[in-house]
Amino acid sequence: MLVVQKFGGSSLADADRIRHVAGIIANEYRQGHEVVAVLSAQGDTTDELEARGYELNPKASRREMDALLSCGESMSIALMAMALEALGLPVISLTGRQAGFLTDSQYANARIKSIDPERMRTELDKRNIVLLAGFQGYNRYDDVTTLGRGGSNTSAVAAAAALKADLCRNYTDVDGVYTADPRIVPDARKLAEITYDEMLELASLGANILHNRSVEMAKRFNVPLEVLSSFTPDVPGTKITEVTKMEKMQVSGVARDNDVARVSLVNLEDRPGIAARIFSLLAKAKVNVDIILQSIGRDDTKDISFTVSLKNLDAGLRILREHQEQIGFQDLVVSDSVSKVSMVGAGMVNNPGVAARMFEALSDAGINIQMISTSEIKVSVLIDKADADRAVRAVHDRFFGEV
Amino acid sequence: MLVVQKFGGSSLADADRIRHVAGIIANEYRQGHEVVAVLSAQGDTTDELEARGYELNPKASRREMDALLSCGESMSIALMAMALEALGLPVISLTGRQAGFLTDSQYANARIKSIDPERMRTELDKRNIVLLAGFQGYNRYDDVTTLGRGGSNTSAVAAAAALKADLCRNYTDVDGVYTADPRIVPDARKLAEITYDEMLELASLGANILHNRSVEMAKRFNVPLEVLSSFTPDVPGTKITEVTKMEKMQVSGVARDNDVARVSLVNLEDRPGIAARIFSLLAKAKVNVDIILQSIGRDDTKDISFTVSLKNLDAGLRILREHQEQIGFQDLVVSDSVSKVSMVGAGMVNNPGVAARMFEALSDAGINIQMISTSEIKVSVLIDKADADRAVRAVHDRFFGEV
Questions:
Q1: Which pTM value belongs to this model?
Q2: What is the per-residue pLDDT across A31-42, written as a single tens digit (0 to 9) for each?
Q3: CB contact under 8 A, A83 and B55
Q4: Disulfide: which of A36, A169, B149, B319 matches A130 by Cβ 3.0-4.6 Å?
Q5: What 3-state DSSP class applies to A352?
Q6: What does the DSSP assignment read for B144-169?
Q7: Strands (E) located in B125-260
Q8: Cα distance from B53 to chain A (closest Cα, Å)?
Q9: B152 vs B82: CA distance, rounded Å
């Protein structure tokens, strides 16, 4: 069996943690598996390097920043190699370049174009443990690139896809995906399995475990993922695959997202094409819109409300105000005291009653729903931020409480 | 004009020093020159990285240690690039690999096999300042290697040779080569010029400025060197070239070397081939021998004395004692309270009186000479360590005092 493991920076923060992770890698290898371990930079190394760069030049070029930041991962793999050598194991560290990670030239946010797995394959054939520097690639100019946020997760899934690995184990500081955030819902339960699509919905809803990019890539290349904790490596985590065996469970989890604001355009003229105009303006400004609600007003006017992430709010408001006349709205009403609570589950699509049960649970808890959005595997509601945690508990109780 | 500059770690210790060196590089570039700046790792980075590696594994493999240590230089060049970008200058950082430094596979002490200057040349043609990571290369397995002690000096001279540079400026924390160590001889004078051979003799005698390896390479490829200080970059340093213009000066400098011990084999049988046996044994044990003195004793015996560096002393004594019977000596007498004082000068070869003047100066100072060794451009004497500084001053006074 070929297993790709991935360890984040907090799992590698100091010499003791490195030794601990070396033990996890060694354990996998000693079971007779081929092992590729993808490592992030230690602890806060990336932030520290970035700060040192920006101290010298607040407008440092992305090429040089990539060259600088990639050193964090390069140091990690060399140190881990030494720790594994100390256990008497055959091991070799490889940078993104050595491992054949060719990317485009978008420094700081490069996309992998292809992976030449030959070197990794050769080292595995020699029975070496391969330590791969996450986050790194190189472009056709032979320069170092980095893969952006969550880059090491992307590296791990990409390596697993290129090597046709049997499993990509993602070690984090939580031991799996839960039916809700255990800090909000103390009796949240860990899921044994979940589909890629469910994971994608949960990740985008603030269950901060895996980056969407790596899950999307895992789905595309059908790489089985597992999320588990480096602190309790023997506890089975959550498997993320194409189809789960748990047909019965309609809902996989309940998530809350506080990074959201509601924007309402009030008293719009009711002309055709006005919604298209608004949302193409926002798209041009790279403002992603999530839930959209259009209501028929009195007379010939209507209101359009939608949600955006907080970081996009200012850009969105600016573009709308600049085009107020052209769009023809009277008022712009903004609220950032809102929260989005979502239920995710692949089984939902065949069970139309699921959404109703969710609304019922919220209603019973006296929580007012401002907006609703549904997809095949998700129901999201926008509610008052003050009610968010209570809403998560109420919905979770309704679906998981009685099991 | 194409200038290669080299800056050591102490010149790059923090953000302020980096900015200062950026100013020196910028100044060279703004004079219309093509500039390649070779950088070491910042301050104590190399030592710190090494310590972190050995903490995890006291027997860390050289391959992984090279991968780890090379990150120090990689970080330096990226940070310096940012500092130069902040000055509005076009700049690009290149690792040893990107700059085409192909080496053999002797990790930790690799030799440069060839340099493909194409990338550096292309970047210079674009009018970019090229920042080259010193100390680094890569081997035919596509792995990172490092060049050993003084590696960044070697990188600089090699880059200068490959690019046919007009000058290789080596910035250190002293502003040139002096006729003696200014800490011992306060009125020592800075030399404007010196030959490669003189520099080689001075370096091996403890004038700790340039490593022999880089001077040898400079001599082989006829790369003009200059040693100057990064703290006073406007003060002209010392030029090191094939032939100096200073024909008149017989002696370039006086140096002292305390890293030396004297070993005497007493009452050896006076048989043919005995010296050959002793020194081939020592050579096999990689013990370098410097001054050798053979004296005829009474009867049929003789004594042989020689000097070795302190770090080779134990190995040398071990091999001799193991073969005491075979060699046939009675006693082994060791002294490490000795010091070697040497006069170096290319003009010496045509002036046989120079050595005599040196001995006279020592005699006038009441200093006893234990051993003597001469070459075409050097006279060395072994004396009591307690007399060493006084001897340097006496010899320096005799040759430079009256000028």
A1: 0.84
A2: 999 999 999 999
A3: no
A4: A36
A5: coil
A6: EEE--TTHHHHHHHHHHHHTT-SEEE
A7: 129-133, 136-138, 144-146, 167-172, 193-195, 225-229, 238-241, 253-257
A8: 6
A9: 21
